[in-house]
Amino acid sequence: MPTVVDYFTYTPVHGPAEAAAVLFAAICVVVAVQTRKAKASRWTYILAATAAAESIGYILRAVCIEHISLALFINMNLYLLLPPNALALFNYKSLGDVVRQSGVPARRFWLRPRFITWFFFASDILSFLLQSAGASMTAQESTVTAGRWICLVGLAIQLVFLALYLVTVAIVTRNPLYVVGKHPGAMDSAKAKRRLMVIIISTTVLLYVRSIYRLIEFADGYGGKIYRAEWALYVFDTLAILAMFAVYIGLGVVRFFPRGSEVAEMSLEELVAAQ
Question: 0.70 cut: is pTM over it?
Answer without folding.
Answer: yes
